[in-house]
Design goal:
about 300 residues, mainly alpha, f41 fragment of flagellin, N-terminal domain, 2 domains, two-stranded parallel sheet, 6 strands, about 65% helix, rod-shaped
């Protein structure tokens, strides 16, 4: 039946064209944004999961940065420890030389004094990002010998999050403490009444008592070298603990990024193919609507 009030063909063609236009707009949005799920409207479940995963991935990025920062801080301290051991070996050699009868111990002390200054310079220079674990002031406001490096971020099945840390006790690695002289190098030995930082052999003679003092000083320096070696080993082990999670966190972040992509990213090959098909449908729909609209004109010819 033909009607001038209701053009069923035109209505059908218009509905089809509107649906095509809607799909075309959606596909063009996917191509322009690269996302199949750009908002909760597109897919509430996938969007919610992806949003949470993105947030966690940002946290993992911060963990990665923290590990790199902590690793650099430990690396600086370790390098300074190694240099300190080299200087301490020279002081030990000077003390052995000073034990030889008849030597000019004042000249030996000149060399030792220069080495002591070098030790202090190394410790003071072992600073990274404002952190110095070798030359400290334990009496400073807010001082805490226990340092921590954020090493992990995780979320359990209930959604609760946890943050893991690697802890370092710098009270075992400090060389100088300006507050109470309790570092490895500035602690006063009860027998010699001197610290490595202040030992002085210039006034010692060849007497038996002074020779005994020289032996005690040499033993004191050797003990300090062992303590520094232990501290350096501790720092080295800590750096290894820090370096291991760096690769894992990086790989985990990549895996999460890939997972997010599989949920919300648009398949560009599919989208481009669909776009061409929809553009063709749009053209055909416009032509179909034009033909349907001509039906009313044909009715007029019946009365011509």
């Amino acid at each position: 039946m033909s009607s001038i009030l209701t053009n069923q063909s035109a209505m059908t063609a218009l509905q089809a064209l509107s649906q095509t236009q809607k799909s075309l707009t959606q596909t063009q949005t996917q191509i322009s944004t690269g996302l199949r799920v750009a908002s909760a409207v597109d897919n509430a479940a996938y969007w919610s999961i992806a949003t949470t995963m993105r947030s966690d991935n940002d946290a993992l990025s911060s963990v990665h940065d923290s590990l790199n920062l902590g690793g650099s801080t430990v690396g600086v301290a370790t390098a300074a420890m190694n240099s300190t051991i080299s200087v301490m070996d020279k002081i030990k050699s000077d003390l052995v030389t000073a034990a030889e009868p008849g030597v000019d111990r004042s000249k030996i002390q000149t060399d030792i004094t220069a080495l002591q200054g070098q030790l202090l310079s190394i410790a003071n220079s072992a600073s990274f990002n404002g952190e110095n674990w070798l030359a400290v002031n334990s009496g400073a406001p807010g001082y805490n010998a226990n340092k921590s490096v954020v090493a992990s971020f995780s979320r359990d099945t209930t959604g609760a999050i946890s943050i893991g840390t690697i802890n370092i006790d710098t009270s075992q690695t400090k060389l100088y403490d300006s507050n109470n002289q309790s570092g490895i190098l500035d602690t006063v030995n009860g027998t010699t009444n001197m610290s490595v930082a202040t030992l002085n052999v210039a006034g010692l003679t060849d007497s038996a008592a002074d020779q005994a003092t020289l032996l005690q000083l040499t033993t004191q320096v050797d003990t300090a070298i062992q303590s520094i070696t232990t501290a350096a080993s501790t720092l080295g082990a800590t750096q290894t603990r820090i370096n291991l999670p760096i690769t894992f966190v990086s790989n985990l972040s990549d895996a999460i990024t890939s997972g997010i992509g599989s949920l919300v990213d648009a398949d560009m090959n599919q989208a481009s193919t669909k776009l061409q098909a929809l553009q063709t449908q749009q053209q055909l729909g416009i032509q179909s609507l034009g033909i349907a609209n001509q039906n009313s004109q044909l009715i007029l010819k019946l009365f011509g």
